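Because discrete structure vocabularies remain unfamiliar, we first show an illustrative case, written as a sequence plus integers encoding its fold.
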Amino acid sequence: MKTLNEVPVGSKAVVKKLKGQGPTKRRIMDMGITKGVTLDVVKVAPLGDPIEVKVRGYQLSIRKAEAEAILIEE
């Protein structure tokens, strides 16, 4: 399965599943990222951390470790 880290800039991705548990998963869900939501990858920092995405009209920064916990549909 692909993770959000593997999505190129300018692409859209649909969240299939959130893996992991505890505070990381809770933070992702608090940002409004849940199963079935479409993410627009806007920008990635030169070293890959953070990743800027648009979710439900909001632009958010997601850490690389958090992006690895977001599985997307291929």
About this structure: The two ends are 8 Å apart (CA to CA). The helical segments are 23-30, 64-67. The mean pLDDT is 89. The beta strands are 2-3, 12-18, 38-44, 51-55, 58-62, 70-72.
